[in-house]
Specification:
Strand 12 and strand 13 form a beta hairpin. The protein has about 375 residues and is α/β, with parallel strands linked by helices. Helix 5 packs parallel to helix 6 and helix 12 crosses helix 13. It is globular, with a radius of gyration of 21 Å. The protein contains 13 helices and 13 strands. It has 2 domains: about 150 residues, Aspartate Aminotransferase, domain 1 (Alpha-Beta Complex); about 210 residues, Aspartate Aminotransferase, domain 2 (3-Layer(aba) Sandwich). The chain has a 7-stranded mixed β-sheet, sandwiched between helices. Bound molecules: pyridoxal-5'-phosphate.
Length: about 375
């Protein structure tokens, strides 16, 4: 190890970077096909793109990118405040909700403290915790891999400062009702911040979409995160937000980068909020195609977990027995060779599963067409089984 590397802080040394979805451009190059031929079902983006209204407005804004953005995102905060009925001082904006999660970790965690999260929940909770020098307390899941809130309560330690709950959860798609969240908040010490990560909120059916934001009034230790990367279709611009109590937000403002949300992202998010018809269309489309995807997988004998997000977690464990390697990784690789990008979840300790995002109708059909081919290829290749 060279002399500089030995000064890297110890908890960073063994930290694996976040495993992002394979880029379309890279696979198109490898397969020597055009990018349009690649089907990406790997990062839970909106397959319908963005609202056409956002598209034209962003084009008009490009001319201004020689200027720094508004550091306080004043207009976007005003739009979010109108949407949720919270004050602008209760809003924290981030370079994606990922940035919000990291600023929370920076603000509340350090060596000698801990955060708590479910075994099969979003990988960034662990990354943000470990990189701040704190310990992760990983709570065992329910039988269907979801959050077990009573187990959360029994795992809280005297040094726990943050609790992360993804609702709906990635990668399982599981969901917790508002009543369960409320009962949980009643039992958690108010000195611990409970982070409710609602990146997929807009994909919920109306019945499940009960307002978690109104809980903020009664629970000052509640913090909610939302994203523009999913149903709003702005993943590439990187913008998300957090809602919490004003004191928490003011501390977080001290640790964020001064210009953490770029000007195109601020503008696009404002117009995206104005086009709720597009969000609703995306939600309905997601439900329809997810049903087709789940039924298609089921007709091949593949089980999926009930998902409230825009992706499904599929268990391929009954397809091939006794694999030498992670079946999820092998299937991911064979699907890549057929032009389809999915997400293996071996990093979540789920070696026989793949997470598959809901795509367009055509993408979904193509995936279901090539999947039996991919499984046959694995069966017939002795290196795999
Ligand atoms: C549960 C969850 N939270 C947060 C994020 C971060 O999203 P973004 O930073 O794009 O807002 C993701 C991304 O996939 C996610 O799945």
């Amino acid at each position: 190890m060279n002399s500089i590397s030995k000064h890297v802080v110890p908890w960073i040394k063994n930290l694996d970077p976040y495993n992002v979805g394979k880029p379309i451009q890279e696979l198109a190059k490898t397969l020597n096909v055009s990018e349009e031929k690649i089907v990406k079902l790997a990062s839970n983006e909106n397959p319908l793109g963005m609202s056409p209204k956002v598209h034209s407005k962003v084009n008009n804004e490009i001319i201004k990118i020689n200027r720094y953005p508004d550091s306080n995102s004043t207009s976007l905060k005003k739009a979010i405040s109108d949407l949720h009925g919270v004050t602008v001082n209760q809003i924290f904006l981030g370079n994606g909700s990922n940035d919000v999660l990291e600023c929370l970790a920076k603000t509340f965690l350090r060596q000698g403290t801990s955060s708590l999260y479910s075994k099969y929940s979003f990988a960034v909770y662990s990354l943000a915790t470990i990189s701040s020098g704190a310990n992760s307390i990983v709570v065992p899941s329910t039988k269907n891999l979801g959050h077990d809130l009573s187990a959360f309560l029994s795992h809280i330690s005297s040094d726990t400062k943050l609790i992360f709950i993804a609702n709906p959860n990635n990668p399982t798609g599981s969901f917790i009702s508002r009543d369960e969240i409320k009962s949980f908040l009643n039992l958690v010490d108010e000195s611990i911040l409970v982070v409710l990560d609602e990146a997929y909120y807009e994909y919920l059916d109306d019945l499940d979409k009960t307002n978690s934001v109104d809980l903020l009034k009664d629970y000052p230790n509640l913090f909610i995160t939302r994203s523009f990367s999913k149903a709003y279709g702005l993943a590439g611009l990187r913008v998300g937000y957090g809602l919490g109590n004003e004191e928490v937000i003011s501390f977080m403002n001290s640790v964020r980068q001064p210009f953490n949300v770029n000007c195109l992202a601020q503008m696009a998010a404002i117009f995206a909020l104005e086009d709720q018809d597009f969000v609703e269309m995306s939600r309905i489309h997601n439900r329809q195609i997810m049903l087709e995807l789940v039924n298609g997988l089921s007709s091949l004998g593949i089980k999926t977990l009930h998902s409230r997000g825009n992706f499904v977690l599929a268990n391929f464990g009954n397809q091939i027995k006794h694999t030498k390697h992670s079946l999820g990784i092998k299937l991911f690789e064979v699907l890549l060779s057929l032009g389809v990008i999915t997400r293996p979840v071996t990093n979540y300790d789920l070696p026989n599963y793949l997470r598959i995002s809901v795509g367009t109708e055509e993408e979904n059909k193509y995936f279901l067409k090539v999947l039996p081919q991919a499984l046959d290829l694995i069966h017939s290749n002795s290196n795999y089984v």
